[in-house]
Design goal:
Blueprint: H1 10-44, H2 50-63, H3 65-83, H4 90-124
Helix pairs in contact: 1-2, 1-4, 3-4
Amino acid sequence: MYLLGYNMSIAVWVGIIAVAGLAAQTGVVMIIYLDNAYEKRIKEGRMNNWNDLAQAIDEGAVQRVRPKMMTVMTMTLGLLPLLWSHGAGADVMKRIAAYDWRACNINYSYTSYNPCNIRHMEREGFATT
């Protein structure tokens, strides 16, 4: 917000609340996919050790990539016209859209790449489970 010259305002706080809602939605959907993969493996009798649990987590996370990408791209592309708008109300909408656009992309990057990096570190012996 500092780089765009926006002060902390009610519009920025509205954007923060909107992104918090998106993050909660993303988390709930991720949990649903992970639970489905776990329950599927339980029913098939393939949940016998920690490696089976890790495979279930990988399976659930991979199924979540497309819906998550669709959510992020819809929000990102939907906010772009607001960032370029001019006219009545544009000054308020730009503050909301700027924060949401940045936070949405950061949220996607953080929740997509960090679990993969942590998973790789666990497999290579750099981190413990």
